[in-house]
């Protein structure tokens, strides 16, 4: 899959427009062939939702439009390098490629956006007990039951 600068310029313009609306400078589109199948701009503040990231919204829109969760035939274009949350969605959706305009280092140097992202990557690499937000594994004798039921439904 090769880059199409037209799409990068489009998401940069979308990100600029989003800033004019009082939001953050992030936008994304999912392209399948020559068609945009999903779009998104960060609307974290307007929605009061920290998960309202451009990439997530673009992926959700593409999955709904294509009626599938496998986007391996699609490309995501983003105005900025995706954060860890968005990267997780990118991997789950199996996107064929991702192209972004502004790296996390450039965003940090230009507008101070990189510090939280660098912290997230470092923190997630720590063991659960050492993370800045406490993660606790709770044992239960029934912990595998939902997975057993799922396996029976899908593996007969």
From TrEMBL:
InterPro entries: APOBEC/CMP_deaminase_Zn-bd, CMP_dCMP_dom, Cytidine_deaminase-like. Transmembrane segments: none annotated. One of its GO terms (molecular function) is tRNA-specific adenosine-34 deaminase activity. PROSITE patterns: CYT_DCMP_DEAMINASES_1, CYT_DCMP_DEAMINASES_2. It is an enzyme of class 3 (hydrolase). Pfam families: dCMP_cyt_deam_1. The keyword Methyltransferase does not apply. Keywords: Hydrolase, Metal-binding, Zinc. Its EC number is 3.5.4.33. Residues 2-124 form the CMP/dCMP-type deaminase domain. This is Nucleoside deaminase. It comes from Paenibacillus mendelii. The lineage of its organism: Bacteria, Bacillati, Bacillota, Bacilli, Bacillales.
């Amino acid at each position: 899959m090769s880059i199409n600068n037209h799409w990068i310029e489009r998401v940069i313009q979308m990100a600029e427009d989003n800033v004019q609306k009082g939001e953050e400078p992030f936008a994304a589109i999912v392209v399948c062939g020559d068609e945009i199948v999903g779009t998104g701009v960060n609307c974290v503040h307007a929605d009061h939702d920290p998960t309202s990231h451009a990439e997530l919204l673009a992926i959700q829109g593409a999955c709904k439009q294509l009626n599938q969760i496998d986007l391996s035939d699609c490309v995501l274009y983003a105005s900025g390098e995706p954060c860890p949350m968005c990267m997780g969605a990118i991997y789950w959706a199996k996107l064929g490629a991702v192209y972004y305009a502004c790296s996390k280092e450039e965003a940090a140097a230009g507008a101070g956006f990189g510090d939280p992202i660098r912290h997230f990557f470092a923190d997630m690499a720590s063991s659960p007990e050492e993370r800045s937000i406490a993660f606790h594994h709770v044992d239960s004798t029934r912990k595998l039951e939902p997975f057993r039921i799922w396996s029976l439904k899908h593996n007969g």
